[in-house]
Specification:
Blueprint (H helix, E strand, L loop, with lengths): L2 E7 L3 H12 L6 E8 L2 E8 L6 H4 L6 E7 L14 E3 L2 E9 L2 H10 L11 H10 L4 H9 L4 E9 L5 E6 L4 E4 L3 E5 L11 E4 L5 E4 L4 E4 L10 E3 L15 H7 L1 H23 L4 E6 L1 H18 L3 E5 H4 L10 E7 L5 H12 L3 E6 L5 H5 L2 E4 L12 H17 L7 H19 L3 H8 L3 E6 L2 H17 L3 E5 L15 E7 L2 H16 L3 E6 L2 H7 L4 E4 L8 H19 L18
Parallel strand pairs: 15-16, 15-17, 17-18, 18-19, 20-21, 20-22, 22-23, 23-24
Antiparallel strand pairs: 1-4, 1-10, 2-3, 2-4, 5-6, 6-7, 7-8, 8-12, 9-10, 9-11, 11-14, 12-13
Helix pairs in contact: 4-5, 7-12, 7-13, 8-12, 8-15, 12-18, 13-18, 14-18, 15-18, 16-17
The chain binds 5-amino-5-deoxy-1-O-phosphono-D-mannitol.
Length: about 600
């Protein structure tokens, strides 16, 4: 949530900060703002809406120091006033996170006569730093952050002070190291192609950033050392190629995600065996799409390795009193590796003695740094808010992990099957015709996705994706549950999408189609079972998938449901890359 960036150096900060914000927009797009140091003073430009609205405000401005913010609103509605940077006295600040005790702090500051101009939690930070500032900015920041409860990554600029100062707790923050210039940002895409090296800050770090150097301190301002690593973020991730949307571009990268994730698995297979040795119980955690991948992971591990698995929503897991035994291994699944609920749930599990395996495509994320082992999802950066190729990458990693847990070899038929499936996905991404069903979705008042076993897990994903980017209400259900309540919702304005990839369950799922159609509802079937397609073709619109190894069918049906959601959103004129009210990484609780 919220993207932040800071720059100090020989180039024009207005341009660098603006470009960085454009690259960070997937983190939130309710408002945007930039503060630039002009003749020693903080000049602030901010606006409700997307980053491009700043362009006319900053055009022609030259500055060597600046900070910027693109917002996903938590406290205070999207507006010019609530846009960051927030300023008070000589201080300008951009913040990502939530200050949970802001009400108390604001009350105290207001009692002292300070006037607030926004209804955000973040504005208290500018006031606090200003109140502690007596000539040493890092000291003022260190004192101010000690007052904060919640989470923060912040970058501060002060009139009369050359350096910028950054601090973090729970929310991610990285430093970009250049020659005669340095950067600070909430995440790597902001720095794509900008600097050769980065370093990742740890909780409670405070960084003092000048043109020529970066010094990192702990919360008491004792120097600490953080490792510099190569900046691997490439500007190419922002190149749409010939695709109108990142979602389509990233769907077309599904085959590469499957292949690359499966090749990378070999590098960690031995360490993985060590981490899982003695595992007698597994918990898979994640949120949203990552949780849906976890549901498939559960089915794979239980079917192949016969080890009991619980797949849990990370946001729920962390608020219960989980049972962790000495043989418990937790798999935390997360594209960003920064989802607050997944991180907190993982920390809880670790603190109770579980081993932690991160399944992520963000190797420098907080989750990766917390984990005993990272199972790499090599999907590359995902820009579209709706997860696509990261999901299929996560499924691939969990499938291979389940095979290893079962003592199987990751070679021969297993990898061949994945390769075949990647090829089939490539064909689907180019040629699958979902148009008729997408139009049916677009005309429906509600769309229900149903399936059994593996297909049920994909039904949940299909439903989430359609809601997320088309705003059509709906739900994902086990096919058998339909008659236990949802059937009451079925009428001629609703569509039920039935996923059938398991021959053994096809008959039972066909019953559900009949039940829907009998009650006047419309139905569509996504299947690779020929007999089901033949039997149901008079009653439902059929999307036919190729045949594949049973347990890999979710890779194909995932592409189908994601493509269906994409086309529906486009038909309805929605922007699938930036759905309303959402942001890509949910770094607040
Ligand atoms: O970065 P993560 O994988 O931890 O994110 C989890 C969810 O926020 C994410 O999958 C979300 O549900 C997607 N936008 C769905 O498309």
């Amino acid at each position: 949530m919220c993207g932040i960036i800071g720059y100090i150096g020989g180039k024009n900060a207005a341009e660098i900060v603006y470009e960085g914000l454009e690259n960070l927009e997937y983190r939130g797009y309710d408002s945007a703002g930039i503060a630039l140091k002009i003749e020693g003073k903080n000049a602030v430009f901010k606006k409700k809406g997307r980053v491009h609205k700043l362009l006319p405000l900053i055009e022609g401005i030259q500055s060597d120091t600046g900070i910027g913010h693109t917002r996903w609103a938590t406290h205070g509605k999207p507006s010019d006033e609530n846009a960051h940077p927030h300023t008070y006295g000589k201080i300008a600040v951009v913040h990502n996170g939530i200050i949970e005790n802001y009400g108390i702090l604001r009350g105290q500051l207001e009692k002292n006569g300070e006037k607030f101009t926004s209804s955000t939690d973040s504005e208290v930070i500018a006031h606090l730093i200003s109140s502690y500032y007596t000539g040493n900015l890092s000291e003022a920041v260190a004192r101010a952050v000690k007052m904060l409860e919640g989470s923060y990554a912040l970058i501060v600029m002060c009139e009369g002070v050359e350096e910028i100062v950054a601090a973090k707790y729970k929310s991610p923050l990285i430093i970009g190291l250049g020659y005669g210039e340095n950067f600070c940002a909430s995440d790597e895409p902001a720095l794509a192609g900008k600097c050769p090296q980065i370093c990742v800050l740890e909780d409670d770090d405070i960084a003092v950033i000048s043109k020529s150097e970066v010094a990192v301190f702990d919360s008491n301002l004792n120097p600490v050392t953080r490792q510099n690593i190569l900046n691997l973020a490439l500007p190419a991730v922002f190149d749409l190629g010939n695709c109108p949307h990142y979602m389509l571009k990233e769907l077309r990268e599904v085959p590469a995600s499957i292949k690359n994730t499966s090749s990378a698995f070999f590098d960690v297979a031995d360490s993985f065996k060590e981490v899982i040795s003695g595992a007698d119980r597994i918990i898979v955690l994640g949120c949203g799409t990552a949780y849906h991948a976890g549901l498939l992971g559960k089915r794979y591990i239980e079917s192949f390795a016969r080890i009991p698995v619980e797949a849990e929503n990370a946001g729920e897991f962390r608020y219960k009193n989980p049972v962790i035994t000495s043989g418990t291994v937790v798999f935390a699944v997360s594209q960003s590796g920064e989802t607050a609920d997944t991180l907190e749930a993982s920390k809880l599990a670790k603190s109770l003695g579980a081993k932690l395996v991160a399944v992520t495509n963000s190797p420098h994320s907080q989750l990766s740094r917390l984990a005993d082992l990272v199972l790499p999802v090599v999907a590359g950066s995902e820009i579209c808010v709706a997860a696509t190729k990261s999901y299929t990458g996560q499924i691939t990693a969990l499938y291979l992990a389940a095979l290893l847990l079962a003592g199987a070899e990751i070679s021969g038929e297993n990898t061949r099957n994945l390769g075949i499936c990647a090829g089939q996905c490539k064909d689907l991404c180019q040629n699958l015709n979902v148009e008729t069903v997408a139009h049916m979705c677009a005309q429906s008042s509600g769309v229900y996705f149903i399936g059994r076993d593996l297909d049920y897990a994909v039904a949940l994903e299909g439903s989430l994706k359609l809601k997320e980017i088309s705003y059509i209400p709906g739900e994902g259900y086990p096919a058998g549950e339909l008659k236990h309540g949802t059937l009451a919702l079925i009428d001629e304005n609703t569509l039920t999408v039935v996923i059938i990839t398991d021959e053994a369950l096809a008959g039972k799922c066909a019953n559900a189609v009949n039940e829907v159609v009998t009650r006047g509802g419309k139905a569509a079937v996504i299947t690779n079972v020929d007999s089901a397609a033949e039997e149901l073709k008079g009653q439902a619109e059929i999307i036919l998938l190729p045949k594949c190894e049973k347990y890999l069918s979710p890779l194909l049906s995932a592409v189908a449901v994601q493509m269906l959601a994409y086309r529906t959103a486009v038909i309805l004129g929605r922007n699938p890359d930036k759905p309303r009210n959402l942001a890509k990484s949910v770094t607040v609780e």
